[in-house]
């Protein structure tokens, strides 16, 4: 749970309800895992696989940066390269494994939205 600190922040009107995050992330992690498994089986030492691992590291760093450090600015510093890594994975996967690229499109949409949400929180606070 985000905690008291998060409750005190001004949030934009388009902030989703808290119950939505769990189901969305569960679905996204399944899609991310399938794309990662497909990439690992096809090309475990590829640049695509390195980008996949990089985006996972950034994904896992965001919560400690934003919530742990109580820093929306630090969260933005993490989420911006995460968004770039997701786009890069899609681009690198498009020709060799279109399915993996498609599996990352909902992730791109959600992280794009999350980036806008994070930026809005920075600007409002």
UniProtKB/TrEMBL annotation:
| Keywords, alphabetical | Membrane, Transmembrane, Transmembrane helix
The family database entries (Pfam families) matched by this protein are listed as:
TspO_MBR
> Per UniProt, what is the membrane topology?
Multi-pass membrane protein
Q: Which domain of life is it from?
A: Bacteria
Answer whether the UniProt record assigns the keyword tRNA-binding to this protein: no
Compartment(s): Membrane
Q: Where do the TM regions start and end? A: 20-37, 49-67, 73-90, 102-124
Task: Tell me, in one coarse class, where this protein mainly resides.
Answer: membrane
The UniProt family comment states: Belongs to the TspO/BZRP family.
Q: What is this protein called?
A: Tryptophan-rich sensory protein
């Amino acid at each position: 749970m985000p905690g008291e600190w998060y409750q005190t922040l001004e949030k934009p009107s388009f902030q989703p309800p808290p119950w939505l995050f769990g189901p969305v992330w569960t679905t996204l992690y399944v899609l991310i895992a399938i794309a990662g498994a497909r990439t690992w089986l096809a090309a475990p030492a590829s640049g695509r696989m390195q980008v996949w691992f990089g985006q996972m590291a950034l994904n896992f760093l965001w919560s400690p940066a934003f919530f742990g450090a109580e820093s929306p600015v630090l969260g933005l510093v993490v989420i911006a390269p995460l968004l770039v890594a997701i786009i890069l994975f899609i681009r690198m996967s498009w020709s060799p494994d279109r399915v993996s690229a498609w599996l990352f499109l909902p992730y791109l949409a959600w992280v794009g939205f999350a980036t806008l949400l994070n930026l809005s929180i920075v600007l409002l606070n």
